[in-house]
Amino acid sequence: MVSLVGCGRKSFQLSARFEELWHFLKAEGLDRGDAYSRGGGGHAVEKNDEAFEELRPYRDLDASRLKIVGKGQWDCSDFLPDLFYMVFKEPRINVFDLPFREDEVPDNTRNSHEEMLALCRLWDAQGLLRLIPTELGPPRIEMCTKVFNNYKNTLADRQIGDRRGANSQEGRVPGPSKSLPSATSLLQLSVRRWKEALIGSITDRRDFYRQFYVTWEKSSLNAIYPWPRLSELKGLEAANAYLENFGKKALKRKRNRETEGDFLGGRRPALLVSEDPYVVPCFAAIFQGDHLGVEVATASHTGLLQSYGLLVTGSRLLSTSFVVQDAVVDGLVIDDYFKFCRGRMLEQ
Predict the structure, then answer these.
(1) Contact 87, 93 (CB under 8 A)
(2) pLDDT at 260 over 90
(3) Is the dihedral of CA 336, 341, 346, 348 positive or negative?
């Protein structure tokens, strides 16, 4: 008998696959006698993903099961390094027109219109929905993000964004993710046997990606599909903001050159040409699935913690360097900050 301790999101997968393999070996009689004398060809191991909900971690979008806590209000600008400041604030400077295969991007043609509307209402309740005209939206639907559910527990799921289309068009900026500490980094720590013990603590920032405030330019690259009529979102705060920013009255207002620019690429596009236009729903935070979002989240979190004297060079655990002082060490994995120190064991 083998007992597998459930730890992490993959433990159910490991346990189920192990049990299926064990039953197959028993059915083939390989748990008794001489297995090598039987010969024979290969056989498929039956797979059953119905035993646990966790064996089907990724599901089609069901907005009613998504749990979102963050409200996109943390401005991380002061904690971003120079390398990421511009690509986060003005991300279109890092967008290129690159070819891709259809199997490399999400298929948005089958997305549910009803679930899209439900998702918009969920985002709007958290202040995470922004609406822009179709003229300012992605040039191709492959550039839109396909949102789906990631099983969390019996009551709720996590929100994940399949952003492969947008990711494929953005330049890769080397960031702190390449240095994230792994389990082997802890092997640098040692204690005196029977005299010392390792004492640790960890903090986890709740719904970290949804806490980030992003610019309109950044959120415009977080578009989803299909695109609804404005009337379908009537009453939402995002719909009211759309009318304020892009409605007929807004178009008649005198534009500020500092905010509008000089239109060197041509005249400003005519927006809201109909009474009930199609609009592009955009996510006003960072998607889990944004490859540069991981770098931004890690870099800004690092800057925040270092402003309080944490993550000091020499005692910070990284996968690309060693520690010099191991009496007290700490490390960061995106939103998880942890610390270890050596403590003296009490006399028996």
Answers:
(1) yes
(2) no
(3) positive
Query: Minimal CA–CA distance to 80: which of 314, 336, 295?
Result: 295
3-state helix, strand, coil in the chain (%, to 5): 35, 15, 45
Q: Are strands 146-151 and 58-59 parallel, antiparallel or unpaired?
A: antiparallel
Secondary structure (3-state) at 164? helix
Helix axes 82-89, 291-306, angle to 10 degrees: 130
**Cα atoms in the 13 Å half-sphere on the side-chain side of 252:** 4
pLDDT of res. 235? 96
pTM of the model: 0.83
Q: Which of 306, 344, 340 has the alpha carbon at shortest distance from 323?
A: 340
Q: What one-letter code names the amino acid at 245?
A: N
Owner of token pair 């092997």: 187
What angle in degrees, to the nearest 10, is found between the helix axes of 237-246 and 113-125?
90
Task: Report the distance separating Cα 13 and Cα 195, nearest Å.
Answer: 39
Query: What average pLDDT does range 210-239 have in this prediction?
Result: 97
Average pLDDT over every residue of 253-274: 55
CA distance 277 to 234: 12
Please compute the mean of the pLDDT values over residues 275-287 and round it to a whole number: 96
